[in-house]
Amino acid sequence: MILAAGRGERMRPLTDRIPKPLLSVAGRPLIEYHIEALAQAGFKELVINHAHLGEQIEATLGDGHRWGIAILYSPEPSGALETGGGIFNALPLLGNVPFAVINGDIWTDYDLARLKSPRESLAHLILVDNPIHNQEGDFLLSSEGLCGEGVGRRLTFSGIGVYHPGFFAGCKPGAFPLAPMLKAAMAQGKVSGEYYSGKWVDVGTPRRLEKLNRMLSA
After folding, report:
1. Angle at CA 184, nearest 5°, toward 4 and 151?
2. What is the DSSP letter of 11?
3. Is 22 helix (H, G, I), strand (E, B) or coil?
4. How much is the pLDDT for 49?
């Protein structure tokens, strides 16, 4: 699943007329980098949620045949459902086995074929070095490969993860964030993780978008 329902407030005015996942990066819509990477990694089915200007996403990407991948869409009401609510809303399309989720507003050279299905855990997260705008990081990563909170060197959640459908057991329809659910599962030792030292960019502002454009154009 690619999360593409955000309004992109920090990207305005760029996102007033075009959804953030369709912003051009080195001459291509940002979301196409994800689709191409997923197809190369062997994924055959993809769900994309959308809200703000979502009809543009469907019109641009179509059914996915260009990449040899089947795309289904999970429309959300105006204002979207936040990360947790958006994934929960799409569960009927995602099936009853673990599934990968990627934030639509990042770029990375992480090989998605490496993604691990959570076995003893409910979620598996890819963590990266802390960028300038998140120097405190998000979560700890233990030597046993478990994510958690507490005192120590934190890493940043990349926006790439694998979730077991059971992670959303007990959730109700509506808008809700993912972070509190992750923290609750971490307290039970149910979230594993891995550190990735390669390239990763949170394309959250026009300045970071321009920086990524320069990097990929070069």
Report:
1. 100
2. G
3. helix
4. 97
Rounded Cα distance between 191 and 155, Å, is 14
State how far the alpha carbon of 19 is from the alpha carbons of 59, 61, 139, 141, in Å. Answer: 12, 13, 29, 33
The Cα–Cα gap between 134 and 143 comes to: 23
* Strand 123-128 versus strand 156-163 pairing type: antiparallel
Q: Which residues share a beta bridge with 72?
A: 47
> What is the SS3 assignment for 155?
strand
Instruction: Catalogue all structural domains in the chain, each as residue range(s) with its CATH number.
Output: 2-217 (3.90.550.10)
Closest by CA to 169, choosing from 100, 89, 82, 88, is 88
Model pTM greater than 0.85? yes
DSSP 75-101: E--TT--HHHHHHHHHHHHH-SS-EEE
Across the beta sheet with 2-3, the strand order is: 70-75, 45-50, 2-3, 99-103, 156-163, 123-128, 191-195
What's the pLDDT tens digit per position in 92-122? 999 999 999 999 999 999 999 999 777 789 9
Say how far apart CA 58 and CA 49 lie, in whole Å: 10
